[in-house]
Backbone:
């Protein structure tokens, strides 16, 4: 009895512990310093091979070291980049491994950059569609479309203010969502659009900024009111790093068909719910020489109703926003009840106009349902076949979209009157 | 307690781990009925009297004594009356009995009631195994031989004459007995002739007992065996010429430590006293808290050579009688020459010596013991150890500290959650670290991972070696800290850990983040209130490190299943270790959340107390009453 019980115990221990060690065990064991962590991957069309892969890898050089003194002076790069030509990402990783003694690991990649060339040619899909098959790839990685070459973009992808690239790279995209000049653009947001026809994918638009402001008096002087009418690489700024994220790349199916500027991306965000908060500037409705700045947040979820009964679908779009007055240059007392309504109507009108023009652009120029109206439309169909027959991608450009924007000023800022 | 559910994979796994030695019968704590019968339980107990709590042997003895007393009433002259049950023993010759005394003896025969034990079932007069010779010279020689006089210098035999006529002597152990009492209240009285004025020639023994000795406790003894035992406990034994009895006089008064603050179970609020090595003081400390006539205190001797005493305490009417009987059965069955305090007793009586889970609570706090007694548990106090044992034990009771109940329930609950967290940390943190950095790097935030990696850059060892080095060093510090003399010892723990850690990091032997892991693990371990449980955590964390380092989270999960099965199969005196979680009982929720005291209406369900109700539904009577009206009305 006693010996048989002990035998049983030993058997269970063997099965539970020893056997898996033989079967799987330490083969998967990697010390953290034996790995090289890729932070950014870049995909370009190759010259000698199909693909030119650029890997930006976090370097251990200036970090940790137990608070010892910083080596050397100046700005040592906290990342290292490797570019290889290869037939596929995975071979590329192997080839890139010859440059480093550590195993290259994708499990901490922050974003993947594709060149616009690839995105427009449709090669993009070939590489992106199989990414989740690989164990190490994170589905929450952001997808960036770079205007110009991805390798150039990565060359300018440096940290600003800190020497911690991992933090900088993961923060810059998640923080931008709050300011809403970027779409959400994570891999799984995009993947749904690629695989189905209920919506079309949108990716983050990136570019390299020359960092040159125009000199005064040089050429025409185009006045911006909303402030976001740029795409990445053209934002008028100086200082910081050259890498720019601004606006969105619009796809139809696997191919990129165009780009949205920052302002359009924000309006898109109002529809899709990606907009979390943004500072908006409009012309003062009572005195167009001045501007009014507003802090705008979504008040409710955007209501989208799609009617598919008629020849052309009818979309009723209700966007509810609320906000706060930030600046009134003219000194007009918009805090008062009647005046407040004037400002609210003006903003509503402004946004409605922008939204209409964005819808128009998407319907006629891009022919791409980036708003996800198809998500609503599909609920009217019981069977997949019916939906396929309805052919939403063809129907969307014909749709009648009625936009309605509702805006309420909740607070008047820290000044009451 | 809810019936155990033995089904499913987990139960099967548990049954594999539920190893019991084949000669060992599993003790099952019987049910005590539902709530309704509990309400009526106290009356039942009154009828049943103490008999419920006595085992067969005790009952036989009590019956024999009763019989004997009846016979004695009939025939007072006949001293060597035959008692049916003890015939066998009686037939043995004195010489053979003494031979027996020198070798290992059956403990059942030498059980004695200490004179100090008020609640002892009966006087020891019934024992006539080695009837005392009326000839005092024989007695003296025997006692001297038995107590190794004059080789043993601390045993004193003092001869004198009662009333200047009758030969007598007292024997005591110098130092164990209180000299003042012997000088002033025994010898002075015995030799004071005035006190014999009224002696009318009857039994001198009874006369002295009743008229001469002014000591609070005296006991008749009728055999040398118990006389020697009592002398060893510090009593003074009086032999009188011509008497077939001797008198054990309570004089025990040896040097002992005073009551001090608890050192291992310190609390901020609540009682600040701990047990001492003196059994009697410990018993009194408990009785001072529970002033209940039903608090029973039984005395047993364990160990044939050292005759160390142990005392069982329980509350009649609350404690399950089967539990008391089982504790007594196990204690009485111990055959050893030297039971070293409570630790040895614990190991002798625990259900499963192979199991890693502690099966007995040991505590140095009288208030802790008292609260366990009120829950229906049994306490075992032992001589020469400032700790009490309490059975049965559950994980829940090992994680609760008396402070929980001294604090308001919100704070108590918080402390409990902190302790559970501490237990998990103490067991799992190093393993978690090793499996994260070796197998699941994707779960670590990139920044942290990169800083772990870069801090490990200069370290030439794999993480597992690092962690074993540091854990090993910490174990060394802990063990050495106990033994390093004086002031250094107390500070060694902190200083040693700091310096060692700092130096190890500077020498690139370990990475700095590991120092944090080891330190937090140690903190978690120290936060566990039970020393035994903390030891379990201390040991099995190495198992988890091994599993985490070889199999990652899978290994840790397997380890948790095994540890869970071990815990679930462990039983302490018939009570499952994981009660009230598994099996579930009525108050399963009472562990995570320390309910307000006025909500604690029932005793712990798993100990199957006879009276399960502690207080009525409305224990705060004032909430239903009228507040006194103010003066203005």
Residues:
């Amino acid at each position: 009895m006693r010996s048989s019980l002990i035998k049983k115990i030993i058997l269970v221990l063997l099965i539970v512990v020893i056997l898996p060690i033989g079967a799987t065990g330490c083969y998967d064991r990697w010390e953290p310093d034996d790995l090289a962590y890729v932070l950014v991957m870049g995909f370009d069309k190759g010259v000698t091979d199909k693909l030119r892969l650029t890997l930006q890898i976090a370097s251990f050089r200036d970090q940790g070291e137990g608070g010892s003194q910083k080596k050397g002076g100046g700005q040592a790069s906290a990342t290292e980049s490797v570019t290889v030509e290869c037939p596929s990402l995975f071979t590329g990783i192997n080839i890139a491994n010859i440059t480093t003694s550590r195993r290259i690991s994708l499990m901490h990649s922050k974003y993947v950059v594709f060149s616009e060339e690839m995105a427009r040619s449709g090669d993009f899909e070939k590489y992106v569609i199989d990414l989740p098959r690989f164990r190490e790839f994170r589905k929450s990685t952001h997808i960036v479309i770079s205007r110009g070459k991805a390798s150039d973009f990565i060359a300018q992808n440096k940290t600003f203010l800190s020497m911690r690239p991992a933090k900088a790279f993961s923060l810059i995209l998640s923080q931008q969502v709050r300011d809403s000049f970027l779409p959400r653009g994570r891999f799984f947001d995009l993947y749904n659009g690629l695989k189905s026809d209920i919506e079309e994918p949108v990716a983050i638009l990136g570019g390299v900024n020359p960092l040159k402001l125009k000199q005064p008096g040089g050429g025409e002087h185009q006045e911006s009111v909303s402030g976001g009418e740029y795409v990445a690489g053209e934002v008028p700024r100086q200082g910081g790093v050259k890498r720019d994220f601004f606006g969105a790349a619009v796809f139809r199916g696997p191919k990129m068909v165009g780009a949205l500027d920052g302002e359009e991306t924000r309006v898109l965000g109002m529809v899709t719910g990606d907009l979390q908060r943004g500072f908006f500037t409009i012309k003062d409705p009572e005195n167009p020489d001045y501007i009014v700045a507003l802090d705008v947040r979504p008040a409710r979820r955007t209501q989208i109703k799609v009617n598919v009964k008629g020849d052309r679908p009818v979309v009723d779009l209700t966007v509810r926003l609320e906000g706060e007055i930030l600046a009134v240059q003219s000194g007009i007392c918009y805090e008062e009840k009647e005046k407040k309504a004037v400002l609210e109507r003006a903003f509503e009108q402004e946004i409605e106009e922008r939204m209409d023009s964005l819808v128009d652009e998407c319907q006629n120029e891009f022919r791409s349902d980036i708003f996800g109206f198809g998500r609503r439309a599909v609920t009217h169909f019981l069977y997949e076949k019916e939906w396929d027959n309805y052919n939403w991608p063809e129907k969307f450009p014909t749709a009648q979209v009625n936009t309605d924007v509702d805006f309420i000023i909740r607070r008047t800022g820290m000044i009451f009157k | 307690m809810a019936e155990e559910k033995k089904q499913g994979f987990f139960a099967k796994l548990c049954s594999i781990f539920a190893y019991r030695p084949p000669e060992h019968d599993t003790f099952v704590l019987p049910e005590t009925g539902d709530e309704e019968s509990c309400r009526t339980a106290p009356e039942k107990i009154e009828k049943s009297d103490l008999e419920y709590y006595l085992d067969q042997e005790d009952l036989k003895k009590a019956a024999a004594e009763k019989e004997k007393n009846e016979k004695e009433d009939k025939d007072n002259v006949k001293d060597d009356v035959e008692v049916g049950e003890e015939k066998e023993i009686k037939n043995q010759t004195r010489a053979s009995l003494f031979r027996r005394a020198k070798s290992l003896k059956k403990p059942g025969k030498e059980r004695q009631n200490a004179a100090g034990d008020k609640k002892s079932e009966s006087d020891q007069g019934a024992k006539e195994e080695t009837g005392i010779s009326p000839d005092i010279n024989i007695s003296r020689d025997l006692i001297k031989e038995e107590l190794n006089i004059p080789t043993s210098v601390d045993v004193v035999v003092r001869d004198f004459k009662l009333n200047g006529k009758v030969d007598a002597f007292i024997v005591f152990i110098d130092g164990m007995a209180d000299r003042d009492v012997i000088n002033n209240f025994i010898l002075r009285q015995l030799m004071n002739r005035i006190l014999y004025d009224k002696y009318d020639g009857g039994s001198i023994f009874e006369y002295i007992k009743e008229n001469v000795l002014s000591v609070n406790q005296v006991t008749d003894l009728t055999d040398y065996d118990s006389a020697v035992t009592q002398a060893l406990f510090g009593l003074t034994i009086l032999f009188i010429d011509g008497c077939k009895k001797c008198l054990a006089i309570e004089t025990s008064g040896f040097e002992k430590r005073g009551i001090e603050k608890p050192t291992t179970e310190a609390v901020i609020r609540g009682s600040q006293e701990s047990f001492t090595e003196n059994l009697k003081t410990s018993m009194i400390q408990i009785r001072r808290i529970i002033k209940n006539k039903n608090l029973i205190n039984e005395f047993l001797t364990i160990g044939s050579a050292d005759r160390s005493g142990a005392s069982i305490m329980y509350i009649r009417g609350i404690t399950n009688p089967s539990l008391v009987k089982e504790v007594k059965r196990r204690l009485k069955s111990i055959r050893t020459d030297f039971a070293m305090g409570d630790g040895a007793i614990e190991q002798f009586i625990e259900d499963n010596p192979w199991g890693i889970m502690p099966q007995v609570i040991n505590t140095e706090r009288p208030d802790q013991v008292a609260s366990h007694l009120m829950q229906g548990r049994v306490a075992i106090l032992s001589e020469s150890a400032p700790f009490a044992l309490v059975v049965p034990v559950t994980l829940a009771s090992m994680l609760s500290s008396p402070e929980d109940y001294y604090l308001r329930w919100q704070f108590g609950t918080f402390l409990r959650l902190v302790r559970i967290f501490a237990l998990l940390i103490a067991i799992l943190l190093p393993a978690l670290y090793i499996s994260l950095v070796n197998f699941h790097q994707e779960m670590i935030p990139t920044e942290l991972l990169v800083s772990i990696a870069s801090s490990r850059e200069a370290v030439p060892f794999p993480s597992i070696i690092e962690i074993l080095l540091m854990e090993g060093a910490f174990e060394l510090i802990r063990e050495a800290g106990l033994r390093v003399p004086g002031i250094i010892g107390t500070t060694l723990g902190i200083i040693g850990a700091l310096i060692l850690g700092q130096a190890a990091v500077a020498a690139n032997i370990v990475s700095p983040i590991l120092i944090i892991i080891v330190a937090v693990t140690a903190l978690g371990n120290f936060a566990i209130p039970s020393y035994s449980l903390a030891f379990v955590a201390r040991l099995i964390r190495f198992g988890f490190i091994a599993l985490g380092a070889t199999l990652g989270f899978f290994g840790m999960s397997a380890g948790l299943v095994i540890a869970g099965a071990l815990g679930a199969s462990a039983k302490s005196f018939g009570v499952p270790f994981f009660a009230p979680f598994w099996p579930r009982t009525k108050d399963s929720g009472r562990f995570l959340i320390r309910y307000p005291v006025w909500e604690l209406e029932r005793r712990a369900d798993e100990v199957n107390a006879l009276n399960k109700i502690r207080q009525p539904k409305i224990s705060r009577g004032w909430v239903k009453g009228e507040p006194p009206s103010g003066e203005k009305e």
